[in-house]
Amino acid sequence: MDGKFTLLPRRGGSLRGSLPKFLIAIILLCTVLVWLAGSVYRRDTLASAPLAADRPTPTHISYEPDSISGFVETPAPPPVEEQPTTPNSKVGLKHWWGVESPYHFRGEGPRNRTQIGREKASLVMLVRNRELKDALSAMKDIEDRFNRHYRYPWTFFNDEPFSEEFKLHTSRMASGEVQYGLIPKEHWSLPTNIDEKKFREKMKEMADKKIIYGGSESYRHMCRYNSGFFWQSPLLKDFDWYWRVEPSTSFYCDQLYDPFTFMRENGKRYSFVMTMYEFRATIETLWSSTREFAKKHPEYIAEDNSLGFIVDDYKDKNSLFKKDFNLCHFWSNFEIADLNLWRSQAYRDYFAFLDAKGGFFYERWGDAPVHSIAASLFLPKDQIHFFHDIGYRHPPYKRCPQDDESTDYGRCQCPFNKGESFDFDGYSCQKRWWKFHNQDDSGNPIPSYKIPDF
Ligand SMILES: Nc1nc2c(ncn2[C@@H]2O[C@H](COP(=O)(O)OP(=O)(O)O)[C@@H](O)[C@H]2O)c(=O)[nH]1
Ligand SMILES: [Mg+2]
């Protein structure tokens, strides 16, 4: 009989066949024991762990080996008090996806817009509906860097009615109250003293010469409005201070203190962050008109004014009549200033005088040189302030604070090397300002014998 067909197992064959089964059984048993031990250990650990509420709140992210993961538990927020509905929330804010939600999303729905800052101040923007996106980007910077902690109101002006869309989005972006002003026609049209034919000819001439904005009528209205009218608006009557904001501007640093309070407490009335040369072709007769005005009203010219900044080789008060305007002006797309400076009799008379000359239309006088000359002549020089600690961009120029303190504490995010700031550009008048105030190239006070050479 062939052994291979026998039903009786051979001894050796029996041992070899049962060994793998035995090993498999041992492995299974060990697995079950390990699993049981693990679950008992887990139950013990969970039972002895304090409840979430009893656990101390971690104050920093921990990377210790026994921590579960690196995270910060924040305590539950205090209950939110019902806030009064402000007029702005009547705009009808809805979630953009159109779904009613039980949650209050920050920035949506009724919110507390009560002003926190202590000054009678408003952020002010002259703007067109089509500039909404650029307006929002400037607003966002100012809100994030400053205003959400102060909730100063925003005042918007336009020569056309603001669209619902503009009002909806800007009121959402604002942390404080918002108001929208329609500029009266008489503040945004050719005044009766202007010879329209002559104006159109002059405008064409400037356009042909490719003078910047030389061919634009609306730009002229804008410059005249910023020079002579916005501060007269009834919307601003309860305010003493304004911060002019333009669409597309950027703010690179946290604003660590209230600049309005700073201005008031330090007796400042006009401020700037950039200064540069004006295009002479836009203001051919502005200086001669100013001289004429100053002759008529010498009482308006302040002692210790800033004439030495806007004329070269300044000697004394008479330099106004002997020297030419060196074209240095404060770039007025940024301004924090005292509205009462423009409301003063001196400035009202100056504006009326200039307006009668017609230079806003026959030439293209900008509000920047008009404001700058007025502030330089009518104010003592210490009342004009250079905000060295504000990082700012208005295309195409940008600047950042030069000192480490402002950069560090202000969390400045300047997308360029500090040394590339516009302050040091050949087109900037900043060095002149420093020299005029007896400061060195970085604005530090210097002994009078060490005037920088430039
Ligand atoms: N409502 C209105 N605002 C204007 C008009 N033209 C200019 N602006 C605003 O006036 C400011 C200066 O104008 P902008 O075009 O920025 O001039 P630039 O900064 O000198 O190049 C900005 O705030 C503009 O939004 C206009 O025709 N209507
Ligand atoms: Mg601009």
TrEMBL record:
It holds the Pfam family Glyco_transf_15. Residues 64-91 are annotated as: Disordered. The chain crosses the membrane at residues 21-41. GO terms for biological process: cell wall mannoprotein biosynthetic process; protein N-linked glycosylation; protein O-linked glycosylation. Keywords: Glycosyltransferase, Membrane, Transferase, Transmembrane, Transmembrane helix. InterPro entries: Glyco_trans_15 (IPR002685), Nucleotide-diphossugar_trans (IPR029044). It comes from the Eukaryota. One of its GO terms (molecular function) is alpha-1,2-mannosyltransferase activity. GO terms for cellular component: Golgi apparatus; membrane. SUPFAM superfamilies: Nucleotide-diphospho-sugar transferases. Belongs to the glycosyltransferase 15 family. PANTHER family: ALPHA-1,2 MANNOSYLTRANSFERASE KTR1, MANNOSYLTRANSFERASE KTR2-RELATED. This is Nucleotide-diphospho-sugar transferase.
